[in-house]
Amino acid sequence: MTPAGKFCAGSTRTILYEMEAKVRIVPINTVDAAFLDRLAICLEERFLTSVRVERSLVVARSTLNATRGQLFVATLNGKVLRAHPGAEAVLLAVTDFDLYKTSHRFVFGDADEAQGVAVVSVNRLRSEFYGEPGDANLLFQRTLKESTHELGHAFGLRHCYNARCAMYYSNSIFETDNKMPHFCDTCDRRLARTRNER
Ligand SMILES: [Zn+2]
Ligand SMILES: [Zn+2]
């Protein structure tokens, strides 16, 4: 097994708080197990909490909006929450389906802090989506950044104006590539404060 540090470069920082909430990754249909295990290890480092990969949740293609060929975020959130009732953890769904919201043509992900659910789509994180050759490492880094971002929201963080911070709002893949897979010092401090208030 490859040490997590190799995947999570830049995340080894001294953080003086503890996160007690747990995170559960919910794969939607088939998502590569090794990929998710790697994601879980890196997210554990970011959020200092245990992260578990759940069994996959089957979401039929017929659930997609037929005209758009995309999955409505609220529909997915509802399914994930119904599949894990009373989960005392933040649920992070990872899907290959392209996602949209009423106000957005597409989203890389979304989070609902009140309901404790976050979603990330790898659909537009693949190089192939942009007509480029597949790149497994780049896909992983992008997924880690967007997962960190959405979990940040689920733990109470807002968008950050630092374009290098994981909490920066990405409207394009260029902005995702430009940001770091972890939080800036300000967001790190905010995260610690948010946790202490609970
Ligand atoms: Zn956001
Ligand atoms: Zn920040």
Task: Give an overview in words.
With 198 residues, the protein is an alpha/beta fold. It has one domain: Collagenase (Catalytic Domain). 34% of the residues lie in helices and 17% in strands. The chain has six helices and eight strands; from the N terminus they run αβαββαβββββααα. The chain has a five-stranded mixed β-sheet with strand order 2-1-4-8-7, sandwiched between helices. Strands 3-5-6 form a three-stranded mixed β-sheet. Helix 2 packs across helix 4. It is globular. 34% of the residues are buried. The N terminus is likely disordered. Bound molecules: zinc ion (2 copies). One zinc ion binds next to helix 6.
What's the tally of helices?
A: 6
CATH superfamily: Collagenase (Catalytic Domain)
Please report the first level of CATH classification, the CATH class: Alpha Beta
Helix content: 25-40%
How would a crystallographer describe the biggest sheet?
A: 5 strands, mixed
Please state the average pLDDT score.
90
Unreliable spans? 1-5, 10-21
Instruction: Briefly note the structural class of the backbone.
Output: alpha/beta
Q: What is the beta-strand fraction? A: 15-25%
Q: What's the arrangement of strands in the largest beta sheet? A: 2-1-4-8-7
Q: How do the helices and strands follow one another from N- to C-terminus?
A: HEHEEHEEEEEHHH
CATH architecture: 3-Layer(aba) Sandwich
